[in-house]
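Usage

Read records sequentially. Each one opens with the input sequence:
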Amino acid sequence: MVQRTLTVSFRDCAFAVGAVLLACGLLFLCDAEAALTGRILIAGYGPELPVVQDLAKAYERLHPGTAIDLEWDSTVRAVHLVKTGEAQIAVTDQPDPALKAMQIAWDGIAVIVNFANPVREVSSAQVRELFSAQITDWSELDGATARVEVIPRTSGNNLTSGFQNSLGLAERVAASAAPVRSDQKVLSLVSGRDATVSYISLAAALKAQEDGISIHILTVDQVDPGEATVKNGRYRLRRPVLMLTATQPDPLTESFLSFVRSVDGQQLLRTMFVPIEQSIPATIPSSVQRLDPSSPPS
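and closes with the structure output:
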């Protein structure tokens, strides 16, 4: 009788413990699902818009209870919006000491000329001299005798600061025309004028060549621009693509960042940029968190 009573008590205890564990598990799952509802705002002003839109749409499909809004314009003060709490993520290429920064990709920067231009290769020093008006005629680079026409980019564009920083161009870029914001407009100008030179995102330049647009991407320092050379740093003209958040992001923001770091997120980034996995350290401040594919998402 005693043994039987003890057996029943043990079984009841086991069932009770199991029920408690099941209830805790269900509560955890409910909490996890609750964390994946709500809305966040991503702010920016650079060429990253199409890929950020793709990331947002893909995340929303995975998590139907969420909404990712974008505020994207040349007048948007993306970092300021994160600092004030109006936005949860700022997309930029410059870290801010007051915010948490995560590098998500590299953006290679292509120096492009008209296809009719015989110049095919330059050094980093010659690129600096072209864009600072120290080289003013293509004959100085063994090209045809023609005055160099520099098509500048707008100063508020992330690509502009990345280009200048990668070359150490402290001074203002020389200009032969009004500053241009979009890669598409630059392609139109360079393909239509034999003596022009400018720079655009590498992915856009490679796509333009595939589409038969009359441009040529210059080799720099005897290194052809491509995903491998941008990733390993041999091709120097590149800029980091960063997502800046509050130092303690909310759960939904953390979840979105984890998606960006995932295989699916990095595959979407590859349509426009060079994914960050297995990249060598960048020449950017140590406050930026770089993606380590061997580590689980935070």
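Summary fields computed downstream for this record:
- Confidence is low (pLDDT under 50) at residues 1-34, 278-298.
- DSSP finds ten helices and twelve strands in the chain.
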